Amino acid sequence: MKGRGMETRLSGKVLILTGAGGGIGRAVAEKLAGHGMKTVLLGGKNERKLDETRAAVEKCAPCLALPGDLTDPGFIASGVAEAVRTFGGIDVLINNAGAAQSTPFSKVSLAEFDRLMAINVRAPFCLTQACLEHLRRSAEPSIVNICSVVAHAGYPLQSIYAASKHALLGMTKSLAREYYEENIRVHAICPGGVYTDMVKLSRPDLGPEGMIMPEEIADIVEFLLLRRGSAVIDEILVHRVNKEPFLV
Ligand SMILES: NC(=O)c1ccc[n+]([C@@H]2O[C@H](COP(=O)([O-])OP(=O)(O)OC[C@H]3O[C@@H](n4cnc5c(N)ncnc54)[C@H](OP(=O)(O)O)[C@@H]3O)[C@@H](O)[C@H]2O)c1
Q1: Distance in angstroms (rounded) separating the CA atoms of residues 200 and 206
Q2: Cβ distance 43 to 69 under 8 Å?
Q3: Has residue 1 got a pLDDT over 80?
Q4: Which single residue of 139, 159, 164, 213 could bond 120 by disulfide (Cβ 3.0 to 4.6 Å)?
C-alpha cells in the first residue's frame, strides 16, 4: 500500500465488493479506495482481472482479493469469514456481480435460469445473510445492490435477467425498511446502459457515445455512503437520455 487518499467518514471502514474485476465493480473499488476503505474483492472467475483491481486499490488502501464462484454458497460463507479474520469486521457490502442474458424465452434452459438467478439474486441473498451479524456491529453499516433499469421494465430477450433484477430490487426495498431501525441503510442503484464488458461483448457494434460510464455509478455509490442521513433511499434510477433500451 502506498499513500492513502483523503480522510473521510469511510476511511478505515471495511468493504466487501463483488464483481470487481472490471466495469462498474472496478470503478467502485477504485473510487472507495481513495477514501482508504479496507477492501475485500469477493468472487470472480477471471483472476487476472481481479488482481489488476487489487493492484489499483492497493495504491491507496489495504485489499484482499478472493476469486471464486458466487453461485457457490460455501464460497460466500468462507469468503466472508476470511474478510472478517483479515480486517476485523464488515461495514459496507456492495452486491455488484451479475450476469445478463440475450436469449429468446423459449430457448432459456432450466440450467441458464438457475445460473442467472443464482448470481443475480441468490448470491446477494447469501452474502447479505452472511454479513448481517457483522454489519450490526458497525457504527454506520450500509448495503448497496446494483440492480438495473430492467428491474422496472421488460425488454425482449431479457426475460430471466429482468425477473432476476425485479427480484433483487424487491428484496432491497424490503430490507431497506426491515433493517432501518437497526441502522443498516440498504440501497439499490438501477442503471441503464453502462459502457462495460457486459455491453461490449453482447453489442460490439455500440460505442461509448450516450452510454453511462462506470465512474458515474461509482460516484453515486460514494454519494450514498458519504451522505448518509435519515432518509430511506431505497432506489436510485439512472437513465440514458433519449435512448431506447437495448440491453440492460
Ligand atoms: N453494463 C450495463 O449496462 C449494466 C446496466 C445495469 C446494471 N448492470 C449491472 O451492473 C453489475 C456489474 O456489471 P458490469 O456492467 O460492470 O459488467 P461486467 O464487467 O461483466 O461485470 C460483471 C461482474 O460479475 C462477475 N461475475 C459474474 N458471474 C459471477 C459468478 N458466478 N461468480 C463471481 N463473479 C461473477 C464477473 O466476474 P468474472 O467475469 O471474473 O467471473 C464480473 O466481474 C451487474 O450486476 C449488472 O447486471 C449493468
Answers
A1: 7
A2: yes
A3: no
A4: 164
What gap in Å lies between CA 161 and CA 167, rounded to an integer?
10
What is the SS3 assignment for 247? coil
Residue range 14-238, CATH number: 3.40.50.720
pLDDT tens for 71-114 read 999 999 999 999 999 999 999 999 999 999 999 999 999 999 99
* Contact by Cβ (8 Å): 175, 219: no
CA-nearest of 165, 247, 158, 216 to 31 is 216
> pLDDT tens, 54-71?
999 999 999 999 999 999
193 lines ligand 1 (CB under 6 A): yes
DSSP code, position 121: I
Ligand 1 centroid to 156 CA: how many Å? Answer: 20
| Domain range summary for the chain, segments of one domain joined by + | 14-238
